[in-house]
Amino acid sequence: MNVIAFQPNNVVPHHTPSEFNVFGPIDERIDFEVGFEPSYAPTKKYVINENTGEYLDVVGTSFACVSHPEFFHSVQSCMVEEMPHDDLLGTTCNYRRARNNAWAMMDCTLPNAKVTVRTPKHETEISQRIIALHGIDGSCSNQVFFGGIDSFCTNGQISGEYDKVRRKNTSGFVLSRFINELRVAKVAFYKHGERLQTWADTTTHTFEVKEMLKSLLTSERKAEKMLDLYQSEVVVRGANKYALYSAFTNYASYADERNGFELRNTGNDTVNVSMWKREHEVSQWISSPQFLQLAA
Hints:
By secondary structure, this protein is of the alpha+beta class. The chain has helices at 68-82, 85-88, 175-200, 206-216, 220-237, 241-253, 271-285, 289-293; strands spanning 2-6, 34-38, 44-49, 54-60, 92-98, 103-118, 123-135, 142-150, 156-158. The protein is built from eight helices and nine strands. Strands 1, 5, 6, 7, 8 and 9 form a six-stranded antiparallel beta sheet that branches.
């Protein structure tokens, strides 16, 4: 999983609005300025939505951040500067929100940068994906991830084999690291595609997948439901390692009756955070000895 973390105010100069047309507008619900107000606690301050005056959370007095649009535009600006123009054409950016809009995620799909994964029964295109996370309440570091999305089932993927870089908002992240990652992102994406094709060429058997899932997953019930998902994928993609990976990404993309992995409604506006954690979970699974040794 490739992860890049940002210092809050270390953003690149904005491009003109026309240069951002390729990405579409920022979700209006996260398009607001951030303000702070002292609290009665001497080491704390309030985070405020300046558009509505709503108090979002309490953070330490040293906490600093930019607005969601400023951060996301800085990521988009780097993409415009460093990525081939043709790769950016047709880009779609979807936004997810949580914690009363204090947590936001920009999920960009680049349909012109793609690889094809083929099995004897099926083929699908995987488009490059760039995901940016931003929090204005201290709930997460500012990060960018690289991955792909399956055009057949729209399951999201984040790569599992790359180094992780994580720092809190106040740490000294160097923006050049992200720029360097963008320069090699396409090569890394094609390598990810080669790995997916290797999995598609690797035959699996139900009994060994069942034993692997029992070893990998902590819950017996979860392992049973994942085996059901795998068998559903086998019908479409054939009995191979990619079908199992597709079952994993299904789990990370949906949480309803379609796959039986519903989320509990806690009433805390954290569904999107929980789904993002599932993507991390899948990234850990595909890096595990159990998965790597399956049908090796």
